[in-house]
Every structure is written in structure tokens, then in C-alpha cells.
Here is the input.
Amino acid sequence: MSGLRAWLIQRVSAVYLGGFFIFGIGALATHPHLNAGQWHDWLSQPLLLLALAVFIVMLLAHAWVGVRDVIVDYAHPLGLRVGLMAAVAVFLLACGLWAAHILLRASGI
Here is the structure.
């Protein structure tokens, strides 16, 4: 993935991440004293769970494009480049699965 597609993924994901960050700061500012039960109730709402799931996908896509660009620019031997990209892919996949597990537990599934 390179060129226009990578650029578009990076920009779209950055806009979503920024918007979600502003939403999160606003939510924390308007509800500063939530206890654990209130947090769980708030985070288990279907629309917020969907927004969080999209946030995680966007975060992982943004991270992949950024790290991939750095690896391509600075890791010149092909074996090193492939090994680093594979390690990053496995790490990001594990993070995504872990986040999905957390979201599924929060939803009660």
C-alpha cells in the first residue's frame, strides 16, 4: 500500500482520531466524577461501542501506515524490512484482538 491510498488512509484516520479525541475530552469535562459502574454503563452503550470500535480500527490503520513508511524509509536491507514489518503487523493485530476482546466484554457478549 503506497501512494494515494496510504495518504488517504492516514488523513481520514487522523480526522476521525482527532474528532474522537475532542469528543472524549468533552465527555470527560461534562462528567468529571464518574464511578466504575457509571463508566461501564456509559461505555456499554451500542453507539459508543461502535464509535470505539471504529476508533480502534482507525488507530491501527494510522499506526500501520506511519510505521510502514518509517520502516520503508530507514530499513534498507530487504530481510530487515520484511522482518520489521512482520513484527509490527503481528503486534498491531494482537493489539486489535485485545481491544476487540475488551469491547466484547464491555458489551456483555
